[in-house]
What we know:
Helix content is 52%, strand content 15%. By secondary structure, the chain is α/β, with parallel strands linked by helices. Strand 4, helix 5 and strand 5 form a beta-alpha-beta unit. 1,3-dihydroxyacetonephosphate binds at residues 10, 12, 38-41, 59-61, 64-65, 92, 96. Keywords: Lyase. One of its GO terms (molecular function) is methylglyoxal synthase activity.
Amino acid sequence: MPNKLCLALIAHDQKKDDIVSFVRSHADFLEGCTIYATGTTGGRIQEACPALDVTRMKSGPLGGDQQIGALIAEGRIDALIFFVDPLTPMPHDVDVKALMRLAIVHDIPMALNSATAEIVVDRMGVVAGHERYLSAARG
Length: 139
Ligand SMILES: O=C(CO)COP(=O)(O)O
């Protein structure tokens, strides 16, 4: 069995209901993943889906985005799913920008809205299923 996929999930406040719906609709796939999330997002996800393996970092404005960025720099995150609110100014905008920059530098899939997140998760599910199929076939 290959290592579990490791995803970072983050949502700004106006998008938290959206990420909860997203997580609920992909709970089967996400149960097979290790999830890192910023503090408040992680709390909402755990509340909605207690079976998921979620590690909560600090809240975004208090350093959570930077903590996730550090995990990306260490090669520990396979994809970043970040439901961004494009209409509200953020005090920690520089942290958000730094996080996105690291996802680009380390060339991991980065979904910044729900339409892209659907594609990333669907694709990763296919690849993960394929790898499981191959490792089972190899014995
Ligand atoms: O602010 C965030 C991302 O920039 C999200 O942080 P929380 O999940 O703690 O609200």
